[in-house]
Amino acid sequence: MYFIKRMFSVKLPVKWLIMLFFFSTAGSYGQELTVSGKVTDAKSGEPLPFVNVAVKGTTSGTTTDENGDFRLKVPGSRVQLSFSYVGYEDVTVPVDGRNVLNIQMHEVTEKLNEVVVIGYGVQKKSDLSGSVSSVSSDDLIDIPAPDVASALKGKAAGVVVSSTTGMPGATPTIRIRGVSSITASNEPLYIVDGVATNINNLNQYDIKSIEVLKDAASTAIYGAAGANGVILITTKEGSKGKTQVNFAMKAGVQMKPSPIPLLTSQQEYDLLKELNDGNDDFFNIFSDYNYNDRENPANSRIDTVNWANVDWQDEIMQNSTFQEYSLQLNGGGEKTKYLVSALYRNNQGVIKTARADQYIFRMNLTNQVTKRLQITTNANLSRRHQNPVADNTQGWNGALINAAFTYPNFIPIYDPDRPEEFFVNPIRPQFDNPDAWIRGKEQENFSTKLNGLLALKWEIVDGLTFLSRNSVSYGAGNSSTWLSRYDTYVGRNSQGRYTVNYYESLGLGTQNTLKWMHDFGDHSLTAMAGMEVGKGKGQSSGVSGRGFTNDLIKEVTAATEISGRSSHSRDFSAAYFGRINYAFRNKYLAQFNFRADGSAKFGANNRWAQFPSGSVAWKISEEPFFKKNVKAINFLKLRFSYGLSGNKPPYNFMYMALYGLEAHGWEDAAYPVTLTDDLYPGYAIMRMENNDLRWETTTEYNLGLDMNMFKNRIIMSVDMYSRRADDLLYIYEPPVTYYDYSEQGGALGGLLMNIGSTLNRGVELQFESKNLVGRLKRTTQITFAYNHNEVLDLGKNPSINFDNEQVVAPGYPVYAFWGYEMDRLFQADDFDPNTGRLKEGIPYQPNVAPGDIKFKDNNGDGTVDKDDKVYLGNPSPPVTYSMSNIFTFAGFDLTVFLQGVQGNKIWNKTRVSTEAMINNLHQFATVLDRWTPDHTNTSMPRAVLGDPAQNTRKSDRWVEDGSYLRVKDLILGYTLPEEVTGKTGIDNIRIYFSARNMFTFTKYTGYDPEVRPVDFSVYPQNKTFVFGVNVTF
Amino acid sequence: MKKISFLIILFVAVSVTSCYKEAMDYYPTDQLTPDKVFATEENAEAALLGVYARFAPGWYKYYIINLEVYGNKDFNPGSKLGGLYAIYTTHVMSPADGSLYKGYKRVWAVILYANSFIRGVQNTRFLDPDRKAQAIGEARFLRAWSYFQLVQLWGRVPLITDQENYGVLYPSNSTEDEIYRQILDDLEYCIKVLPDSYEKIVSSTVEPARVTRAAAQGILAKVLMTPHTWGGSVAPEDLQRAAELCQEILDNPAYDLLPNFDDLWDKENTYNKEQIFTVALSNQGSANGIDWSVYAAHDFEPTRRFYDSFDYDSVAGINSVVDTFTDLRRDATLYMNPISKTILDSKYRRAGMGTSPNHSNPNLYVLRLADIILLRAEALNRLDYDAHKQEIVDLVNRVRNRAGAVPTTLTECSDPQKTARIIEEERHKELFFEFQEFYDLKRNNRLIEVLGRNGADLGLDNPYQTLWPFPVSEINKNSNLIQNEGY
Predict the structure, then answer these.
(1) Looking at beta carbons, which residues of chain A come within 8 Å of B201?
(2) Strand-strand pairing, A441-461 and A464-483
(3) A528-570 per-position pLDDT tens digit
(4) Under 8 Å CB-to-CB from A587, ≥6 apart: which residues?
(5) Helices H, strands E: what count in chain B?
(6) Of A318, B150, B228, B248, most Cβ neighbours within 10 A?
(7) CB B105 to CB A740 under 8 A?
(8) Cα B247 to chain center, whole Å?
């Protein structure tokens, strides 16, 4: 009471007086109160007679009359009334001093009769025989996720969303039920309003619902695009009635990550002394003053008395802000409904100068032209502007975050004599300081995406509906990069460089389906048949210039050397599909789907792919014996499905032979046919044709159980699945009778063929319960998934490259980590004092000395070599889980969302450059523990230039446990009471605070355990705080 | 209502049965796919040069050195190269050997390219249909010659042509007879369509690097004279035809022996009158380049015995005028270091040891007239010694006289066996380090006698050693491929 009074005391004095009166009357105990009201069905509005109305905690109560009205005396205003009725969910409300309480009750089956979107149609949730997870739009709104995909994190069992980078404007990857494909994509199919598209151009406030189709039986209808799961997004239509306006605002700050401790300048200097012992010339640059000689860096000087101690992590990172504004109008009349929305998002990056802006506009119109004909037009326009800053690239000059760790911090940022110039690194001039990199490289991306949909729904006769969806999608964009000719090494070498790339693409599609429904007696049948055709084309071009005289004109026209490129692309696909649903007495359900897909991506021998699937379900709870005897469970369904779905090859024309002027990129196909040495150009075969190239096929079984208990107070489902992907695209080495191999050592090359198989098997659990339904409400949602992932087979003689960190090998997870295992460090007494060689019995390792790492000789052959490499861990987590608890009390709501993964490893490649101690890079403070002859009791090896003993080889030294548990979201919101807002014409105001990534429990030492599987100084995501307001009027 | 619903269904059905085939059969605009490569005559010619370019680098470096070490009775096994190529030197072949695999795949690459070309060029329109037939002929020659090498070295290789087994991933072994039949088929076609010389096909001058009719005739002669399997025999008609083919080449005024043997190896004579078919290794480095001479010829050590076997200041038979003969081939072929007395090759290393560019002829001879002369002698000897013995002696002497060696006589060539030995020895001296010896010995069923314990004792004692094993990776990848016996 006090709190609420305080809130309104300043703003609305009149209201305060009224409320004071109101609450003071309510605050008196023991005073009897008469409460009356009407109870109606929430959906139909019909009054509900004979509803039991009880005072909670007492035996007093009454029932509603034929008109649904009730009247009751309650012993005080603090009591709660509970309403219960057969077939309806119980409702408990606090009286709170009110005299009139009008109650709406929901049928228990209402939840089950909820309709969900499935492929090319809708189905009642209770009738589903496949495995589908639904996420409602309410679950997505107030988390500070920058895009729709991130918002799905932890919402559906088996759907793993991982952000591989925190860069603004980047989208996360989604994996459903594990990784199946090896070279082809593992991304699920995204469908918005029936049209395949990508989802980084969506406004989350426009979304009505998201369904995730997980098993092959559900995705089979999507044919050769459905193997990795399908995410169906439906946008809101308008609604009949007065125009509703929704305004939302979000503003927040993302904190920069806690800095990782690095060596101080003095400690770095000591390390350099150890590494360069004996090389006196190296230390010429160290003196007692700072001097920058840009032309001859060897003449530069570094002050060792007053060390610069530059904090690079602080220099390049900032606490970044973001904001989002959204306005949505929807309404409609008898014939027309509309939804119009606009969104603006702005996101700075944690790394300075990175940012992204996005504008999204949408207009959805639904027009009921006649009783039987409905036309819908949806249009979505998105414009994005991004200044990306590169991370996680392999080279020096792209991995900015890595540079912040490894750039020597005793080098000042600026030239002390000319403060506008950067100090050139005297030890390694081509390694620019991170500030120079941020300032000297400007990158800008623009992209525009327009999606339009024209849909027609025609109920030809009762039970026969024709639906046509026609879509257009247009995208265009450009990206430009400018490298200043002064600030960076690369820029200086090419005297400035400017590159700009343009692309444009257009896609058209049409989908036409005919649906027929008929009930005859106990049987109910629905049949659907349809076709779909899609066509796309695109073009791109780019220009690049170098050799600028100054930084004044940042365009290619000012360059002295210009080059360019251009290309075109085309795509075409067609498909037929159909579905039959049969139900007997609404108890025994069966569904059969079929799809045939044709695509230009398939080889000439395999133009059409076929995908059948079937599923059955048994609503056990509809059986009379069950209804009679088992009261606690109000819904129980057992379902089983089997289906085939597919995955297309990633690019067009991969089945065609390809010619070029050189074989394998270097063996000239020219021949000297004349008397002279002159070479005459010839064509070499760069790729043999493979007319058998086809799609990858996934075969999946799914067994599921859905159970609702206690009148929907508990809703849960359990799924067990086994999916096998065959004909996986993989680079395969055929016999030489079929393929011309290159002479070069190392990778021999090969042909992309359909050759591998993987298996994913697991269990998913989704659980939701309304624990408390009184004055304090609490709802819990839990998801849990366990997935076993394994490569089954790679055909004959696969090209397993065991030299990589990640390997595709039968019997192990896809892209398993692979490498040596550390045993301990070599100490002085491992060596024979006379010869200096390893003692007898110690497995041989070349070039080792005390302080180097002794690796395990796993095969016992006396030598440590590549046959001793073993499996080091799974990059994808076998176990993923999440739990969310939502509390509501008197207008407040609190959400606590936990999310975690277990059992995966991360390859911390950052440490390979920051703990190696093999070159003159700046290192982490952890290297203070390194082995020296005076400090031998450690596991950190010695510092040695050039790494002769290969201490940095691919081993478990770099593999860390990636399991984590995060308090992912903490959201505290408050909805202003109706009495307050009602008077102003506002329907609803909610304000909230939200904190993301507040607490993380993990053993991983890098910035963020969510970035997987190889962390090479990836852009971190860190704690984020958001304040938001949603207003509806 | 029913009418409208029927119309709807019709509309749907029509859209459903639209012809999507053309829509999906199209080609990219920015990549060189077969439709573009074979669209014009000019592009097709470039594709043909690609086949030549494939066989050139494939021919040397990995495979012919091995071949020479394996087949040459006068290769010094104790030399550095002998150690490097131990399995070839000792004739104990290992299917896992890397250079064996490289050699095998290189020869196959030519066949792959030739098949692709022949298939693709069917649809190309040539201005002159005769040229089209010639182009196909050039490709078929290269394929036939590649198969000839494969069948002699590996025996029962799979048979893949543009018609048969094209695109088969796991082909089975074929039989020697089938392979030879294909080779004959290809070469007969070549003899019909290939010209004697080429001019202005892709350049504005003559193009002597291409395969001519004489090349086809020469290779065909060898094919006809080679038994299909070890220890097999050749029909007299085939020997007759082979001899006739050789004669046609000898009668061809375009070809003649160079008067000076040494000139064959000089850079000035890259293309000369004696040459019938060469591998053109441009003098410009890169994959086709001349590092050949720097690379292996550098280390190839012949035996002292060979050095001493040449006539030097020799005197002819008792009936001659006193006249000394010095076989100029010795010093053109071999180089003896005056101090260390090590003997090295001299054909490919002119003007200093391993200097590059050097003065050697960058091209490698596959067929030259001297070879054809001795081939005819061999064919006639095997066919009917008695009928042709004088001609045989004359043929051998034509080669000897050019070389400056002691001429042979009927007394020396007194019977077919002795004559065969003399011809064999002459080929050995004339074509030393020209990658012929293995084939010559195989053709005459002499491998075991010459290289085994009764001859040079280099370890080739068993019939299975007359063939090389299939590379182990090929056996592992293709379960339909059966390894040669003994391996």
Answers:
(1) 673
(2) antiparallel
(3) 999 999 998 999 999 999 988 877 888 888 889 999 988 888 8
(4) A618, A619, A622, A623
(5) 20, 6
(6) B150
(7) yes
(8) 20
Amino acid identity of residue B139, one-letter, is A
Using DSSP's 3-state secondary structure scheme, residue A951 falls into: coil
DSSP state of A842: S
**What is the Cα–Cα distance from A508 to B269, expressed in whole angstroms?**
65
Place of tokens 């909805």: A975
Instruction: Give B198 or A398, the one with higher predicted confidence.
Output: B198
Quickly tell me which residue has 């792209």 as its tokens.
A398
- Closest by Cα among A997, A755, A1009 to A875: A1009
Query: Using H for helix, E for strand and C for coil, what is the string for B65-133?
Result: HHHHHHHCCCECCCCHHHHHCHHHHCCCCCCCCHHHHHHHHHHHHHHHHHHHHHHHHCCCCCCCHHHHH
A881: CB partners within 8 A, 6+ apart: A782, A783, A784, A785, A899, A900, A901, A902
Are residues B280 and A570, on separate chains, in Cβ contact within 8 Å?
Answer: no
d(CA A1002, CA A961): 8
Pairing relationship of beta strands A608-619 and A633-647 according to DSSP bridges: antiparallel
Q: Give the Å distances, CA to CA, from A1019 to A209, A368, A912.
A: 31, 49, 17
Q: To probe the interface with A, which of B3, B10, B45, B54 has the most A CB atoms within 10 Å? A: B54
Spatial CA neighbour of B333 closest among B352, B344, B347:
B347
For residue B177, the distance in angstroms to the closest alpha carbon of chain A comes to: 19
User: Closest Cα to residue B114, out of A740, A744, A605?
Assistant: A740
Is B19 an interface residue toward A (CB < 8 Å)?
no
Please report the number of interchain residue pairs, chain A to chain B, with beta-carbon separation below 8 angstroms: 215
Q: What is the largest CA-CA distance in chain B?
A: 120
**A153 or B246, greater pLDDT:** B246
Query: Which residue of A576, A658, A670 is in closest CB contact with B32?
Result: A658
Q: Which amino acid is at B311?
A: D
Output phi, psi for B351, to 5 deg: 55, 60
Distances (CA, A) of B92 to A121, B449, B459, B462: 70, 17, 8, 11
What's the length of chain A? Answer: 1033
pLDDT at position A86: 76
From chain B, the residues in CB contact with A681 under 8 A are 46, 49
The pLDDT tens digits for A644-687 are: 988 888 777 777 787 887 766 566 777 888 888 788 888 888 77
The answer, yes or no, to whether ipTM is higher than 0.90 is: no
Residue A282 DSSP symbol: G
Please tell me the distance from the alpha carbon of residue B118 to that of residue B135, in angstroms, as a whole number. 9
Which residue is listed with tokens 């209804």? A627
Please list the residues that pair with A638 across neighbouring strands: A618, A705
> Residue B377: enclosing H or E segment and its boundaries?
helix B369-403
Judge whether A466 and A457 are in contact, CB under 8 Å.
yes
Does residue A392 carry a pLDDT above 70? no
Dihedral angle over CA of B100, B102, B104, B110, nearest 10: -160
Nearest to A237 by CA among A169, A170, A332: A332
Beta strands A189-192 and A230-235 are parallel
| SS3 assignment for A730-756 | EEECCCCCCCCCCCCCCCCCCEEEEEE
Enumerate residues 6+ apart whose C-beta is below 8 A from A631. none
Contact call for residues A223 and A596 (beta carbons, < 8 A): yes
Which residue numbers in chain B have pLDDT < 70?
A: 1-26, 57-62, 282-298, 315-323, 349-359
Decide: helix, strand or coil at residue B394: helix
Decide if B160 touches A, using CB distance below 8 A: yes
